[in-house]
């Protein structure tokens, strides 16, 4: 593993949980839930050394797996809310907005942040054009949501 | 409904195999002799065959070459789509795809654009292409370009997903071969020390120090005893003082394990999987465990970070030997899909009676009985022969000849074994799931102690073809059936519930690629938020792992829905009871654990099975079925939305394929399952009233894997 190529805190935490849960792993026949989670996680998190081959440059990192047609994703929200839409580290701007992405390039996990409202995590898909209306929740409205402690 | 299989499936099964030249195959089989017996490891099974390092350099016979009848003329300057390769007399040539078909050869796709046909796009009605949304994701995962959401991998990050049903692309294998050829890791570790242990016991962080200290104390004690007895070795001590024999045995075992562990560390460091700066030597810490898991998944070893014999054997092999095994698995899959085969030899060692030949057989047009063949082994052999690959060195030479860009077009023309005569576009297929030994009794006593419920027969899945009035088994694989599971009830408390599999005659009316599981509202919310990298940063997001679509989906990469078919005046009606035969990420569960009622297969087997069924049955490509599911929930001061726009990519079988779930042998006292929830022994519940258990189809899939 080359330094700086781990997937960060979450993966370390999961693997630590796995280590603890594994305990007498050598004798265990049925993995614990933590081990199963590590099984899920391990498949996606396999840092390896980067050894450029003698005859070529390193594998290019591409965004999405299919080049070609684009899709338009519209995110609708009340403009008065001044809701910022983030895709990871990128600030896509204030909603309502449009996002252009390669068709079939995979879903985008978006974070919508607006003053006075709880952060909202949603997802848009790139299989075809779509329009998504975003509903924001303040503390009081969120009380009706599944999983809220006062519900 | 269209009676035609989709274009990509038709393309992979054409070629007039019945008319192929048999003598050439016979010559090839005769030439390969016994060596071909173990040449096609099943795609996702643990490889237990040790390959000592010394065999890599042992003298070997001269290269095999293609029979003259299969050699195609070299044709330079062909367009990419018409171009295939063959290796003749050690030299590779470009040949024409059309000439290969005309000669009865099968053109096997080696490109990075390959997907199993069940995942492929297909021609829909009126010629429109029905795009499978998971197609592009699959390609990105197989080629180590993207993660399961289609986002780019970090530099140096790899997807090791063979055990999850996504074998690496050829260009990924190319990288492995060329890296390993440069590194010479084989010289960095001692395979004999690795193979001297049957397993290496490991412990979690909290117990490792104690266990190692205990072992050190035993070593000190025995050393003192040895000196006192004047014995030259510990073995000699045990011989003169039988009281120490047990301790000596344990000490020697431990020393062998530690020596193997040290070699494993060297091996993983050399292979680039273990960062020595993040690892404490001798400890099975997070870095080492992560590296071991990566190694196992890279080599398709199902030890799940435990260091058992299969792992030690893989560690003991030179890296290029492991790469060759991986290449063989990948080529087997490509060849089986190209030819439209499913027969992998899994019924060959069946001990059920099957006629004069012993084992399953079928009646041929010639009036004699023929064994159900293993088509995986000779298919792989044929591809390797056409590529001129026998040894790791041959494979390195092949990959050195071809730049990564070549895997945009590369194909090989090979003479695969002829399809058995029962193959055809509309085979009379049926499936059977034998539940094996089944216990309905509650498996705990009043104190919560687990009661023994041994099983001698485990559940199996069998695909049959009806041929000349007989049911002929084609494959038989381990599967899962339902059993006692913990479930979160509507009162927010956990109960046990017997989640049995549906018994009796059912049908597969729909096959779904990249299926989506809809979590019932009772699902614990904690599992629906996770942290992942999103466009360069780590963030909390809605967790779609379990819902899919994806290789971690509760329904795997492909599923067949078990439906009850009731005939009425308006024609047949279909009822979904929530049971599926589906691929599963949880490959260890195939070793004897229970499901929530579904019948799991390894994802790789599911892909092969359903691709085969779609290619040999009348069916209609339906495409993505809209779902429009949206659930909003709260977690730790934030609001999350789960959006599932599609149920997956559907195919409709017409007529449906019969599937029979046999009751199996019921053991114990109860002859029928207990309905509803059963309180967990020793748990005090808030109310004595037990909630009613949901019977919705998706509630079958509650928990982390149906």
Report the helical percentage of chain B.
25-40%
Order of helices and strands of chain A: HHEEEEEEEEH
Provide the CATH top-level class of one domain in chain B. Mainly Beta
Strand percentage of chain A: 25-35%
Query: Uncertain spans of chain B, ≥5 residues at pLDDT below 50?
Result: 1-61, 701-706
- Ends distance of chain B: 31 Å
Q: Unreliable stretches of chain A, pLDDT < 50, 5 or more residues? A: 1-38, 41-51, 60-66
Would you give the CATH topology of one domain in chain B? L,D-transpeptidase catalytic domain-like
Largest interface: A-B, 84 and 108 residues
Could you give me the name of the CATH homologous superfamily of one domain in chain B?
L,D-transpeptidase catalytic domain-like
CATH topology of the largest domain in chain A: Immunoglobulin-like
- According to DSSP, the number of beta strands of chain A is 8
**Number of domains as seen in the coordinates of chain A:** 2
CATH architecture of one domain in chain B: Beta Barrel
Which class best fits the helix and strand makeup of chain A? alpha+beta
Percent range for β-strand residues of chain B:
15-25%
- What's the number of extended β-strand segments of chain B? 25
What is the helix tally of chain A?
3
Main pleated-sheet profile of chain B = 9 strands, mixed
Distance between the termini of chain A: 46 Å
